[in-house]
Design goal:
The structure holds 2 protein chains of 2 kinds. Chain A is mainly alpha-helical. Chain A has 12 helices and no strands. The longest helix of chain A is centred in the middle third of the chain and has 37 residues. The chains are: A mainly alpha, B mainly alpha.
Chain lengths: 305, 311
């Protein structure tokens, strides 16, 4: 199992770099930044490093990839070689290049979807909690009804109706996930709207938008940020699953979920290449989870033992 | 108490059916035009409209659809013109079999792991189990499935494709579906284990547990005799929630292993935009989801006398 060993070595190397970075941050920074670096567990440093690497690869994809995303550059299913470090795919495109562009496409689309779900869900949730009454009741019952259907099943239903394209994919997943964000934002804001300073702001004659933006949002930020990370993981996994099912991001756009599906036949011949994109998905999700875990721990005020 | 909850569940089911039906009404323009494409002649569009019953008002169509679904008649598939109930009947049993198989594997494993992790809290075993669970939750289902294929099917231990038909015997069937069931098990065990652990640790802080400890009981006996019965309600909830989660997990896993189940049917129908089939399967999945949540609530009410006789 030469491959398993090299994966293990690679992960160990990433942990070592993360440890060095944390040590460097502890030595270089002063004040609050240093305190944060001091409390940071190794897993969180690892998570931040991995997220940073993914972001860099996504931004610099055209410079890093040896071949263009959609160009057929060789025979089908070529083995790993010097010219094509990870071989070629089902129709002869360079795997490594598509893997690199996948960071841009898959992660970018997942991020855009999460951001959209978040803006819609959080604004509606905070607004419902602030206004209360029939608006709150109406929105909450509506969300309850939508949440009674499993997320993947509901997304599949909506995708059948609106067809499969990147725009509908983003809108559908964002709509499904916005219901979950709405629930959390509303629950968090309900504890805030009863505070005296909200009453004072209302008496000053401030409008709803000002109250949401300047009074409620800053106080609801910590749980919402953690939720953003978790939500990103869910969105990322559901987009990958849909792409894997052939219903998400469509070829020839390089995408990790559909790359697994397209080249899955290789797995039955004992080739690990199709697992690499799936591994990329898993690594990023684990990394985000590690950072979220740390943030939740920090927000709850608990100390590491 | 229980009757109110059941009535609520039925009401929710009704709302869910309404949402599933109403989703098609969201379509901009007309369903028949959408299905036939822009180049269709007005005559064919009118014929399809009549065939699908689109000329009736929406409430009437909903009523016909719902009463049909309740008697097992879901109408015709738009893709191949066969009755949807035939398509579903052949596959429903397979999907239920797979889900039950996965449940039979995962429930005992996760309960035992969860109890052990709670018992040996903060030990190496607990930390390893927790880290493993967090990692497993972060993996896409198809990743887990293909790792298992690479590892177990490559060595020829288990088949990577499920070829079963109604005449396949039980032993053969269990062997054939082992890999899909194991994939689902790995995916849900992590969640169930973590929640079992949390439920028991929560209870371990109660005074009566301290009392039992001070009497000199062994830790295992404290957990099994005192903590576990009181943790039943949350654990039942956890199990039901995860069985409900199996419903969506089944879709991806069935595609990986080419398993002839409802999930596979739904995915095919989505890519063919066969709305009637998708609606029917979505209704079945959603009904199972609502029903599992209902059963969980009822069972946890029964196991807790305080909830049974609440005023």
């Amino acid at each position: 199992m030469g491959f398993a060993t090299s994966v293990a070595l690679g992960l160990a190397g990433l942990f070592a770099i993360a440890w060095l970075m944390r040590a460097g941050a502890r030595a270089m920074f002063a004040g609050s930044a240093r305190a944060i670096a001091h409390d940071m567990p190794l897993t969180a440093a690892f998570g931040i490093l991995v997220i940073g690497v993914y972001a860099a690869v996504a931004i610099a994809a055209p410079a890093l990839a040896p071949f263009p995303e959609r160009e057929i550059v060789g025979g089908q299913f070529q083995a790993w070689s010097a010219a094509h470090p990870l071989g070629t795919d089902r129709i002869g495109r360079d795997m490594l290049s598509r893997l690199i562009y996948g960071a841009r496409n898959t992660v970018g689309i997942a991020f855009a979807t999460t951001a959209l779900a978040f803006v819609v869900g959080a604004v509606l949730g905070l607004w419902a909690a602030l206004v209360g009454g029939w608006l709150d009741q109406g929105l909450s019952r509506f969300v309850d009804a939508l949440m009674a259907i499993p997320a993947l099943i509901f997304s599949l239903l909506l995708l059948t109706i609106f067809g499969t394209s990147v725009i509908t994919l983003i809108l559908v997943i964002a709509a499904v996930d916005a219901t979950r964000v709405f629930r959390l934002a509303r629950a968090v804001a309900q504890g805030i709207v009863v505070m005296d300073y909200i009453e004072a702001a209302k008496l000053r004659g401030e409008g709803s938008w000002f109250l949401i933006r300047r009074e409620i949002l800053p106080n609801a930020m910590a749980p919402l940020v953690a939720e953003f990370g978790l939500r990103f993981c869910f969105v990322f996994l559901s987009i990958s699953s849909l792409s894997f099912l052939g219903l998400g991001i469509q070829p020839p756009t390089a995408d990790w979920g559909s790359m697994v599906k397209d080249n899955a036949t290789l797995i039955t011949f004992g080739d690990v290449t199709p697992l690499l994109p799936a591994g990329c998905i898993a690594l990023l999700t684990v990394a985000v989870n590690f950072v979220v875990d740390w943030q939740l721990h920090r927000a709850s005020g608990l100390k590491e033992q | 108490m229980i009757l109110t909850r059941v009535a609520l569940g039925i009401g929710l089911l009704f709302v869910v059916s309404l949402v599933i039906f109403w989703a098609t009404e969201l379509l901009p323009g007309d369903l028949a035009t959408q299905l036939l494409g822009q180049s269709a002649t007005p005559e064919t569009v009118a014929a399809l409209r009549a065939q699908l019953g689109l000329n009736d008002p929406a409430p009437l169509r909903y009523w016909n659809w719902l009463t049909g679904a309740l008697t097992g008649d879901f109408g015709m598939s738009m893709g191949n013109g066969r009755p949807i109930s035939d398509l579903i009947a052949a596959r429903l049993g397979n999907t239920v079999f797979l889900a039950l198989y996965a449940a039979a594997l995962s429930v005992p494993i996760s309960l035992i792991l969860g109890i052990l992790a709670a018992l040996w809290r903060n030990s190496f075993f607990d930390r390893a189990a927790n880290a493993g669970a967090l990692t497993a939750i972060s993996f896409p289902e198809f990743f887990v499935a293909y790792i298992l294929v690479l590892w177990l099917a490559q060595t020829g231990l288990f088949p990577s494709m499920v070829r079963i038909n109604p005449t396949t015997g039980l032993a053969e069937r269990l062997y054939m579906t082992f890999l899909p069931a194991l994939t689902l098990t790995l995916v849900v065990t992590a969640h169930m284990m973590r929640m079992t652990r949390a439920a028991i640790i929560n209870l371990m802080a109660s005074p009566y547990i301290e009392m039992a400890r001070l009497k000199g009981m062994s830790p295992l006996r404290v957990v099994l005799r005192h903590a576990l019965p009181n943790a039943l309600a949350p654990i039942i909830n956890v199990i039901a929630l995860n069985l409900a989660y199996l419903i969506t997990g089944v879709v991806v896993v069935e595609v990986v292993f080419v398993y002839p189940g409802l999930g596979q049917l739904m995915v095919d129908a989505v890519s063919n935009r066969d709305i009637a089939v998708v609606q029917a399967v979505a209704l079945i999945f959603a009904a199972a989801y609502v029903a599992l949540n209902l059963i969980a609530d009822v069972l946890s009410t029964i196991t807790n006398p305080r909830l049974m006789h609440r005023r």
